[in-house]
Specification:
3-stranded mixed sheet; single chain; alpha/beta; 11 strands; globular
């Protein structure tokens, strides 16, 4: 099995014929999502933005998850009977005669005890100052390619990867993928938009479930 962590973007483009779409309507529509925030949520986000600014340079992966990502996901609130939140669960499939798999940091999927039909992924990464040679985008894309195969390509796949304070949003449709510019969680306007984008995922997933 080739683990998700071993994939780089160029390898995926070569092996699976992926190509980056710089004019993706799906991505642009997703990034244009809007939401409303009450006063208490706004204050929580301002505090989170300050935490990203002051500390995200030094957070390790677990600290990034606990102190940065988890509070944002709590505000977004993905808890619903329609799908389940999974963390560190295995996912695998044989795609183009290549066995791909690994443990996924975060996904929304159909299923209770184990993921059956995946819809959305978050790949969290190390702190900004220690990126190393790994390709966070490639690792997320390898998960999306695997999920696309499991879903028989019935709908586009959405995901994001997080490097310190920087959030990047990704869409895979067919052989084309699109990647956003960074949304910087230490900027108040950006952290508000991160919430809007992540909340829109709930709308998309409910649409996929109807299919």
């Amino acid at each position: 099995m080739r683990n998700f962590e071993s994939w780089e973007t160029q390898d995926l483009e070569t092996e699976f014929g992926l190509a980056r779409n710089f004019q993706s309507t799906l991505l642009n529509n997703w990034l244009a999502s809007t939401t409303t925030l009450d006063e208490s949520t706004t204050q929580r986000l301002e505090n989170l933005s300050t935490a990203f600014f002051e500390s995200s340079d030094y957070w390790n992966e677990d600290e990034l998850k606990m102190q940065g990502i988890s509070p944002i996901l709590d505000i977004v609130n993905y808890r619903t009977p329609n799908y389940t939140i999974f963390s560190q669960r295995p996912l695998s499939a044989t795609v183009n005669h290549i066995e791909m798999g690994g443990r996924v940091d975060f996904m929304l999927a159909k299923g209770q005890q184990k993921p059956v039909q995946p819809y959305f992924f978050i790949h969290e990464y190390k702190q900004e100052s220690k990126r190393g040679s790994s390709d966070a985008k490639g690792q997320l894309l390898s998960e999306l390619v695997t999920a696309q195969h499991l879903n028989e390509g019935k709908f586009p796949l959405y995901g994001c990867y997080v490097i310190g304070r920087n959030w990047f949003f990704v869409v895979l449709e067919g052989k084309q993928y699109a990647v956003s510019n960074a949304y910087v969680a230490s900027h108040k306007d950006d952290i508000y938009q991160i919430i809007a984008i992540l909340r829109q995922v709930k709308v998309y997933v409910n649409e996929f479930i109807k299919l």
